[in-house]
Amino acid sequence: MNEKKEERIFIRVPGQQKGEAVLTRYLWDEKEENRREKKPAVIICPGGGYWQVVAKEGEPVARQFEKLGCQTFVLSYSVLPDGFPTSLLELAKAVAVVRNRAREWNVDPDRIVVCGFSAGGHLACSLGVFWRQEFVWKAIEENGGEGIRPNGMILGYPVITTGPYAHKKFTQRLFAHKGGPTREDQELVSLENQVTKDTPKAFIWQTCTDEDVPVENSLLLAMAMRNAGVNVELHIFPDGPHGLSLATEETSGGDLQFENPHSATWLGEAALWLKKL
Fold first, then answer.
1. How far is CA 250 from the centre of its chain?
2. How far is the CA of 158 from the CAs of 45, 122, 124, in angstroms?
3. pLDDT confidence of residue 12
4. Using CA atoms, how far apart are residues 208 and 215, in angstroms rounded to an integer?
5. What is the pLDDT of residue 141?
6. Spatial contact of 25 and 6, defined as CB atoms under 8 Å apart
7. pLDDT of 117
8. For residue 67, pLDDT beyond 50
9. How far is residue 103's CA from residue 81's CA, in Å, rounded to a whole number?
10. pLDDT surpassing 60 at residue 113
11. Looking at residues 69-94, what average pLDDT do you find?
């Protein structure tokens, strides 16, 4: 493998209390023949409960998608004390940056995918359901939203609902900047209720034994997409904890429960899904 190279793009949106997001573009292979080929782009949003950004769901995942022939990016987005919709606007702007620089980066502008895990899955899906909303596209000066529209979503054990199967803390963190969520806030970020025919198609995977984010989150989203007439591929694996990432030794941190050969097949299935995008 060639020496790893990176390019970092700093992203700041209106309303941030401090700091800025960083979009890291990974340059793993710069052979001349590869530079000429237009590739799908995968923008990865690691999880972390909206209070941190977990490293094992970032660069290692980018490395694997690069091997699949993708241009890969990882978004280190804003968390506490910044709240909703700051990270959503950062991801929207990241998609706009990739699409605007598609020719320079050999990206197919019609195959830009957002990929998220856990809370990062909520973030990726939020752009999928809100990209046409004025509060998103107008904030980053993307008229009508077409420039920020993802062409697909890859969601690993995503946080989706604020209903009975909710991850209990994520809404408190999203709206801590305003003293906690109102009922309207909770309804807004319960994404199974925001799916429309304009939501991009999705690849979703999770384990049945996830104790932190119940599998019903993925089931509710898949059902909502089905009801809206949006294509969705759903994989429910029988066992494994929350936070599997690649489910291999590379991302297990030496903890064997995070090495799950069955669940690790999600990546190969996602590769097949990407080819049809």
1. 20
2. 11, 6, 9
3. 85
4. 6
5. 77
6. yes
7. 98
8. yes
9. 36
10. yes
11. 96
CA-only gyration radius of the chain, Å? 17
Query: Which pLDDT belongs to residue 94?
Result: 97
In terms of phi and psi (left: phi > 0; alpha: psi -120 to 50; beta: otherwise), the region of 253 is: left
Of 43, 36, 31, the residue nearest 106 (C-alpha): 36
The per-residue pLDDT for 1 is 44
Cα 109 from Cα 103, distance rounded (Å): 8
Please give the Cα distance from 132 to 144 (Å, whole number): 7
Structural tokens at position 189: 């970020």
Query: Model pTM?
Result: 0.95
Domains and CATH numbers, the chain: 5-275 (3.40.50.1820)
Q: How confident is residue 24, by pLDDT bands cut at 50, 70 and 90?
A: very high
3-state secondary structure the chain: CCCCEEEEEEECCCCCCCCCEEEEEEECCCCHHHHCCCEEEEEEECCCCCCCCCHHHCHHHHHHHHHCCCEEEEEECCCCCCCCCHHHHHHHHHHHHHHHCHHHHCEEEEEEEEEEECHHHHHHHHHHHHCCCHHHHCCCCCHHHHHHCCCEEEEECCCCCCCCCCCCCHHHHHCHHHCCCCHHHHHHCCHHHCCCCCCCCEEEEEECCCCCCCCHHHHHHHHHHHHCCCCEEEEEECCCCCCCCCCCHHHHCCCHHHCCCCHHHHHHHHHHHHHCC
